[in-house]
Design a protein that fits this description.
Elements (H helix, E strand, L loop, with lengths): L1 H26 L6 H24 L1
Helix pairs in contact: 1-2
């Protein structure tokens, strides 16, 4: 159950960070590719989650 909560927290944090980056870029006139932004968000969330759960096992 702890890993499920860690995953939910990590995903929420990554989505909030992605939202903030998107807002800042839109305010400055930079258009982000949604496919790339989604892929980077998913991969970064997986890496952060793996790092959190790996340290918990040892």
């Amino acid at each position: 159950m702890k890993n499920l909560l860690k995953g939910a927290v990590v995903m929420a944090a990554v989505l909030i960070a992605n939202l903030i980056v998107g807002i800042v870029c839109n305010m400055n006139g930079i258009d982000l590719n949604p496919t790339v932004a989604g892929t980077v968000s998913a991969v970064s969330a997986m890496l952060i989650y793996h790092g959190l759960t790996k340290n918990g096992k040892n």
